[in-house]
Design goal:
13 helices; alpha/beta; Aspartate Aminotransferase, domain 2; 38% helix; 13 strands; 4-stranded antiparallel beta sheet; 15% strand; Aspartate Aminotransferase, domain 1; globular; 7-stranded mixed beta sheet; binds 4'-deoxy-4'-aminopyridoxal-5'-phosphate
Length: 370
């Protein structure tokens, strides 16, 4: 409600107090913080470090120029969905739902499952949006701690599922921010035992060389979620969810119409027609990850965790000082020190271009020896 401010009246008499309407659990949250990365070597957000190749960019620009932005987009994004089915080898009989990033798919899943008292189960530490979106949607969040080496604890997963009866289980495979894959046999036992839906979040699939997509035939409660963000298209905001048609069609009911905008539909289709370019880049990122890992592992003062994603988690007792030091030297990584008890002293470093990685390693070595 906007009230005119009359001379002589204190503003507070006119301002509505957010606490009178906003839910306390929302007021207790901090908004998702995105660091200002202008001018930095940007190794904080698991992006592909290369811009689009010129030829692909020109093809997209040309096609976007002809998009009728005065019209609403295709609500089903049919052509883009068909391209994703073809390029990502989605089983023909599986359902497919597109989201404005996979973040939006997590939100749709939660909205559709948020019965009073219903729970989301995640492992800890993992992707923070599972917990945040549980709060947004008024769901209980249950976190099951990983082992010290970040592997799954089968007994506590099974016991907690039995006790809490979660409607949704989210497992990032590979996990963010730890970078590891979980043992597939164990994952299957969890899916088989789960009382509700299990979402295997394959955001880092391009770098992992393994997928749960092949298991869709075995389970009627399994959903596989992916994104094009890490592949090289983070700016488009496009994620996809696949699984049994009966489940996907229910989740689709909470999707807002036109959630995939017209420019993303066109750009996504064209970019994915050139998926070989991104696949080759992903292979190069994996090889740079391995050389970055051996550089990091050779630094005795820090611990580096093996990764099957496009980032590496490291631990050092003065992580926050190192983070500040890197920032002063123009390198932005993600500081996770304090984000979770199991991440004390941790920084997450995204694999960048080769020269960026070398600069990072050089500064890191200097800072550790300061
Ligand atoms: N899942 C995981 C495990 C992630 O790490 C991320 C992004 N950091 C996402 C989902 C969300 O990706 P997006 O919304 O860009 O598709």
């Amino acid at each position: 409600m906007l009230m005119p401010l009359l001379p002589g009246y204190a503003c507070s008499e006119y301002l509505m107090r957010p606490e009178s309407v906003i839910r306390p659990e929302i007021r207790a949250l901090s908004a998702y913080h995105v660091a200002d990365a202008k001018g930095f070597i940007k190794l904080d957000a698991m992006e592909n470090p290369w811009p689009l190749p010129d030829a692909v960019a020109m093809e997209i620009a040309e096609a976007c120029a002809h998009v009728q932005v005065n019209r609403y987009p295709d609500s089903e994004a049919s052509e883009l969905a068909a391209r994703i089915r073809q390029v990502m080898s989605i089983p023909q009989h599986a359902g497919l739902l597109l989201g404005n990033g996979s973040d939006e798919l997590i939100q749709m899943l939660a909205m559709a499952c948020a019965k009073p008292g219903a729970a989301i189960l995640g492992v800890e530490p993992s992707f923070v949006m599972y917990r945040m979106i549980s709060v947004f949607c008024n769901m209980r969040y249950v976190g099951v701690p990983l082992e010290e080496d970040f592997s799954l604890n089968e007994v506590s997963m099974l016991e907690t599922m039995e006790k809490e009866q979660p409607s949704l289980v989210f497992i990032a495979f590979p996990n963010n921010p730890t970078g590891n894959l979980f043992e597939p046999g164990l994952l299957k036992r969890i899916i088989a035992a789960a009382p509700g839906l299990v979402v295997i979040d394959e955001a880092y699939y391009p770098f992992a060389g393994t997928t749960a997509m092949d298991w869709l035939d075995e389970f009627d409660n399994l959903l596989v979620m992916r994104t094009v963000s890490k592949l090289g298209l983070a700016g488009l905001r496009l994620g996809y969810l696949t699984g049994p048609v009966a489940v996907i069609s229910e989740i689709n009911k909470v999707r807002l119409p036109y959630n995939i905008n017209a420019l993303t539909q066109v750009a996504g289709q064209i970019a994915l027609a050139h998926h070989a370019v991104f696949d080759a880049q992903a292979r190069e990122i994996c090889s740079m990850r391995e050389s970055m890992f051996s550089d990091l592992a050779s630094m005795e003062e820090l611990e580096a965790y093996p990764s099957q994603a496009n980032f590496i988690l490291i631990r050092h007792e003065h992580a926050s000082d190192i983070f500040d030091g890197l920032k002063k030297r123009g390198v932005l990584v993600k500081n996770l020190d304090g984000a979770h008890p199991m991440l004390t002293g941790c920084l997450r470093i995204t694999v960048g271009q080769q020269n960026e990685n070398l600069i990072l390693i050089r500064h890191l070595k200097e800072l550790i020896h300061l």
